[in-house]
Write a structure and sequence with these properties.
single chain, 215 residues, alpha+beta, Alpha-Beta Plaits, four-stranded antiparallel sheet, 6 helices, 8 strands, 34% helix, 22% strand
C-alpha cells in the first residue's frame, strides 16, 4: 500500500514539474509565454511598401502642331494676323507647298516662236506625237516638252527611245516646282490650338486643320 502511495506521489510531482518547465517557471529559455510575447514583431512599426510615398509627377502636356494647307498667299497674311491676335503665345509659320519632283524630257527653248514651230514640224516628221510647245512667258518659253517622269531612270529610258528615232537635241532636266499655295503651321499647347483654330472663316483655308507632317 505504501508503495502505491509513493508511486502516485512521484507521478503527480513529475506532472507538476513538467507543467512548470513548459510555462518557463523553471528558467527554461525559448518556451515561456512571456518570452513568446516578447519575441513577437511589433505591429505598430510595420509599414506597407509604397504607402505614403510621394506620387509621381504627371508629365507636362507637349506642344502639338496643326497645318492649314492650300491657303492662298493673300489669305495667308490675314490668317497669320488672325491667329496671332487670338493667341500671341502660339508659334506660327508659313511656307509654300512643295510639289513632287519630276524629270522633264524636253528640247531646250528656241530663239523665237517660228523656230519652235519648225522644231515641232521636225518632230512630227519623225512620228513623235506626244509633245507641245511652251508658249507661256518665262525661262522655258519656246521649249518643246516631250514628257514628265517620276523617276530619272524612266526619263532616261524615254530619252534613249527618242534618240533612236533621230531626236538628237532632247535633254533631261530635274524640275522641283513650288506651288503658289501656302501651308500655315501653328504650334502650341493642345487647348490653345483648339481655341485659336475654332470657327475660322472658310475662305482662309481649304481643308480643315490637320497634323503637321513629320520633318
Amino acid at each position: 500500500m505504501q508503495v502505491l502511495r509513493t508511486a502516485f506521489f512521484l507521478l503527480v510531482l513529475g506532472n507538476l514539474l513538467l507543467f512548470a518547465w513548459g510555462q518557463g517557471y523553471l528558467g527554461a529559455k525559448g518556451g515561456g509565454e512571456s518570452e513568446r510575447f516578447a519575441a513577437q514583431i511589433e505591429p505598430g512599426k510595420l509599414r506597407i511598401a509604397g504607402v505614403g510615398a510621394p506620387p509621381r509627377a504627371a508629365e507636362p502636356p507637349r506642344e502639338e502642331c496643326r497645318a492649314l494647307s492650300g491657303v492662298e498667299p493673300s489669305a495667308a497674311l490675314t490668317l497669320l494676323a488672325l491667329l496671332g491676335a487670338r493667341d500671341a503665345q502660339l508659334k506660327i509659320s508659313q511656307h509654300p507647298i512643295e510639289e513632287p519632283r519630276a524629270w522633264w524630257v524636253h528640247i531646250p527653248p528656241q530663239a523665237n516662236s517660228a523656230q519652235a514651230d519648225r522644231k515641232a514640224a521636225e518632230l512630227s516628221k519623225l512620228r513623235i506625237k506626244d509633245f507641245y510647245v511652251v508658249r507661256e512667258s518665262g525661262p522655258n518659253q519656246y521649249a518643246l516638252s516631250l514628257g514628265l517622269f517620276k523617276t530619272e531612270e524612266s526619263a532616261k529610258e524615254y530619252l534613249d527611245v527618242l534618240q533612236k528615232k533621230g531626236v538628237k537635241s532632247a535633254r533631261v532636266l530635274l524640275r522641283e516646282s513650288v506651288s503658289d499655295k501656302i501651308v500655315v503651321e501653328v504650334r502650341g499647347m493642345p487647348d490653345r490650338l483648339t481655341k485659336a483654330l475654332a470657327d475660322l472663316p472658310a475662305e482662309l483655308h481649304a481643308p480643315p486643320p490637320s497634323a503637321c507632317p513629320k520633318p
